[in-house]
Structure formats: C-alpha cells, structure tokens
Amino acid sequence: MKNTVQSSWIVDQDNYFSRIDKFLRNALKNVPLSVIYKLIRTGKVYLNEKRVKEPSAKLEIGDRVEVRNEDLSKYTREYKEIKPAKISLDILFEDEDILVVNKPAGISVHPGKNINKPSLIEGLKYYGSQKGFEPFLVHRLDKETSGVLIVAKNRQVARELSEKISSRDVEKNYVALAFGSPRMERIDIPVDGQEAITHIKPVRKFRTKLDGKDISLTLLDVSIETGRKHQIRKHLAAKGFPIVCDNDYGDFRLNRAFSKKYNLKRHFLHCKSMSFDFHGKHYRFEASLSQDLKLVLKLLEAEGD
Hints:
Helices cover 24% and strands 28% of the residues. It is of the alpha+beta class. Strands 5, 6, 7, 8, 9, 10, 11, 12, 13 and 14 form a ten-stranded mixed β-sheet that branches. A four-stranded antiparallel β-sheet has the order 1-4-2-3, with no helix packed on it.
C-alpha cells in the first residue's frame, strides 16, 4: 500500500511561514529542496486556487496551499528531527522578543547529512527550553561564516522579522577578505534566477607570496540588500575576486597554499553587524571578528611592515 503524503494545507499560527518556499520546505520534509523549487517552477504549486510563479510568494494566515499533479510519496529524503542539545552560545543581546548570537564558524545552523556536531538550532532549542521560549530562525549564515545571527523568541516575532528582512528594511554588513584588487562596486548579478544586490567597498589592501607568486588581497566591507544563498561568495567569485579559502567558488590550489601559510581552516567571511527598527526601538548588533580571522590580518599586516 502506497504511503500518502499531505498535498494541501490551510496556513495557521502553527505552520505559518511568510514565503511559500519556506512553508513547503517545512511541510514536506521528505521532499528534496531541489524538487520543491522545481514544483514551483513547473506550476504545480497553488495558492488560493491560483498557480504560484515565485518561491517568494507571500502567505497569510488562512491561505490554502496545494501541490497538484505530483506523487509526493515517492520522495524519501532523510531529515533529522531537531532535538535540543547543550552547546556554548555567545549571546550578544537578549530581550523578551529577540535573541542575538555571535555564530562561530564550523557549526551548521540546521542539522544536515553527515553532520555529527549539534547544529545551532539544536543548541538554541536547549537554551530556549531552559528559559521558557521556542526559538525561530529568521535568516541564515553558511556553516563556515561567523557573526551576527538573529533569533525570534516566538512565532509572531519571527513572522514580523522575516517580513522585515525580506522587505530589505534591515542593514546587513559583512567583512570579507578576497583575492585580487576589487574597487567599490554595486553587484547585481542574479543568483539562482532571483534578484541579488551586493555592495562592496575596499578597506585595506595586502600583498603576500603563495607558491612563489605575488598575490594581491583586499579586505572588504560588504553590505547586502538581498539574502540569496551564498550571495556574497557567488558575487565576488563571479567578479574574479573569490573570498579567501572559499573552496566552493575559489581556486583550490591558491586556497590550500593560503590555508597552510596562515592556518585558516574556513572562508574569510563574517557578518559584522545588523541593524533595524522594530516595535518602536532601533536595534544594532555587532560581532567582533573571531580569533582565526584576526590572526590572519595580524600576520598579513606584519608582512607589509
């Protein structure tokens, strides 16, 4: 007998997400993300009887979401249930609505395949269980990216903050070290078919020798208007200035030589600050560079003396 998988939902307080792609990712945990986006792209997802055209389509409480003309039971993606796990959290700020942490590199925001370390959300769930709240993520950072991560302490705050972030009412600033000599620029190359806007500004230039070659490096202030997956990394690589030690989008041999010389085990990207207005207050959160990134800059500065 074939397993049946739910293919229609009414959006309520308990299953609400502001975007339809996020809603389906949560509702269809057995379905790979690539398939969910394909369902949207091929017109098999409906919102209130109308075909959905964009993954970013907005949802409201009471909306009806359907997946039509697709056997969802054939998908068997494995997923890990999120269980509370005690981990050390570097808490930058906390009030009744918001928790802000300085995420370390090397820890995933969510559990994933072949990841044995507890994820950040599992650590947040443990902390929330001790303090009497349920954490909700409103944005993400890549596993190897460190810095400011904002967490909502209830579903309504999560809804409002997610809306604020997706409507670009949040300033998001990063620090990156890139190969080459980029100039101040607005980069607007689409990412995964969606609008993506990144602003880069050089802060300091360095020179070093790797594998016997003279190499230019630039420390960048980066701000983003949109938050696409790997946006900064993809944009800088597309412009010919990949982030140092980014093996997904950069030069593997150059990265290996840099990693060996400066003992850097991850890409040089850090979310330095986020700021926004919420419930009549102005919030600004800052996270200082982690020790591994500080050491790289110190060694590069010493070379230039």
